[in-house]
Design a protein that fits this description.
This protein is mostly helical. The protein has 23 helices and no strands.
Length: 477
């Protein structure tokens, strides 16, 4: 045990002469994959991620282990590089990863704030009660909830979309376990597929879009993502059709009081659309990071929130003259910021910093050599999708972006597609699946989803084939 600790403290002792020589000659990277520091860092990240995967059972929030692992890994890297006089290189690289996270994190924070504002204005609750009031039969609801999940998730995140649609399913068919199971699987597949063809649909697509800020040639243009619409649609339709055959056309008997949207709900929706347009314009027209456009869009909501605050206070004073009791409940933008998915945002930070550290040690270069040089981009990108069914797609995609393999636009779209929809293969493969297992506990389960995995896998294969067929011109250099 003491020998192992000594190897961590003085990693230069375990370097091979060729590695030390490479550093002395000014080589910008030292391959530490075989050193004590490298092995320990990989082990620390593995343990942290095992804790993340067991969140459902341990109830330990997923951000905690990866943030700790990030700090420990980079501290070890700093110690390892100090004997070679490369402390400045370590600091510069770490600052680059922090900047990369800051751009993506602030972008997501604005999007989450708008979603929370729409939730507070009863936008999603009104949609849920409207669907229930229409008294669709079970098969119609199966297709409607899937269709809405497919088209809402490109704008809202897949977890929020899935939870909303699952609430509808539970309201109309809570006692029908088989219906709830297949409807939840359908929602998960649809939400993940819908998020794959939009830069805003998932953190992975957002990373791919924003990555072109840091490269001269870019990765994928904003409008190029929509070339994945047909493959994504097929990814959902293939398993949805098979599962729909098991859903009866019975009329559910349920009652739900209609919910009306609060004043300003449509304005918040419109401002969100304008905010997205601002982000796209800032990036396309002015060549500025999209996050600047999103932060500008946050100011739209802040000014509108101020208007709502003044209006509600005025109404409260008017009602108070009549003897009413109470106090004004003002619209507060910062309350919605506080209610953002901070665990997800901090988990994202930990992942970016951890994976960046492993890349700095040489592991991602090794993986890139094996996968993209050895297997080729097609098989490598398909494997990325299969890995995302077990490991969260965020670290998988960030690893690919850090490797930056030389690929055509078609192959970049392929890895975007597979990383986005691969999580549908298992219930634990995406945030939507994990969220629904909690919301529909006992009805939507890991093994219940697993029974339909072959059908979902058929949709996964069909979407890849469709991408090669429909977007064949994008695979040319």
């Amino acid at each position: 045990m003491k020998k192992f600790s000594l190897a961590l403290i003085t990693p230069a002792m375990v370097f091979t002469p060729s590695l030390a020589g490479a550093t002395a000659s000014g080589h910008t990277a030292i391959d530490m994959t075989g050193s004590g520091t490298g092995i320990a860092a990989l082990l620390i990240f593995t343990i942290a991620y095992l804790l993340v995967m067991s969140e459902e059972f341990t109830h330990l929030r997923k951000s905690k282990p990866v943030i700790l692992a990030a700090g420990v890994i980079w501290a070890m890297i700093a110690i390892a590089y100090k004997p070679f006089g490369a402390s400045h290189e370590v600091e510069t690289t770490l600052r680059h990863h922090i900047l990369e996270y800051a751009e993506l994190g602030l972008f997501l924070l604005v999007a989450m704030t708008y979603i929370n504002a729409m939730t507070e204005r009863n936008v999603f609750e009104a949609l849920r009660t409207w669907l229930i009031k229409k008294e669709f039969n079970l098969r119609q609801l199966f297709w409607i909830t899937g269709l809405l999940a497919f088209f809402i998730s490109p704008v809202a995140d897949n977890l929020t979309t899935a939870l909303l649609m699952c609430a509808v399913v539970l309201s109309v068919g809570g006692t029908r376990r088989k219906f709830v199971l297949v409807a939840c699987i359908n929602i998960v597949v649809a939400a993940n597929a819908g998020g794959a063809y939009s830069p805003f649909g998932d953190i992975t697509t957002l990373m791919v879009w924003q990555k072109n800020i840091h490269t001269a040639e870019g990765v994928i243009d904003f409008w190029a993502f929509f070339a994945l619409f047909i493959p994504s649609l097929i990814n959902w339709l293939v398993p949805a059709f098979a599962m729909s055959l098991t859903v009866p056309r019975e009329l559910p008997h349920t009652e739900s009081k209609p919910v009306e949207m609060k004043f300003g709900a449509w304005a918040v929706i419109a401002l969100f659309i304008v905010t997205i347009a601002t982000a796209v314009c800032f990036h396309s027209l002015f060549e500025l990071p999209p996050v600047v456009g999103m932060m500008t869009g946050l100011s739209y909501l802040q000014f509108f929130g101020f208007y709502l605050k003044v209006r509600e206070k005025r109404l409260w004073r008017r009602n108070n003259r009549r003897g009413d009791i109470g106090s004004p409940v003002a619209f507060d933008v910062f309350r919605h910021v506080a209610h953002a998915e901070w665990d997800t945002l901090l988990f994202f930070y930990g992942v970016v910093i951890c994976v960046g550290g492993l890349g700095f040690l040489g592991y991602l270069a090794l993986a890139s050599e094996v996968m993209y040089t050895g297997w080729g981009p097609t098989y490598a990108n398909i494997a990325v999708g299969l890995m995302s069914a077990i490991v969260d797609n965020i670290p998988v995609m960030f690893a690919v972006l850090t490797m930056m393999p030389d690929m055509t636009e078609g192959h970049w779209l392929l890895v975007t597609l597979t990383a986005g929809v691969g999580g549908s293969l298992l219930s634990i493969g995406s945030a939507a699946g994990v969220g629904l297992m909690g919301q529909a506990r006992g009805k939507y389960t890991f093994f219940g989803h697993l029974k339909w995995t072959p059908v979902v896998a058929l949709g996964y294969a069909a979407s890849i084939a469709a991408h090669f067929l429909v977007n064949a011109h994008m695979f040319e250099y």
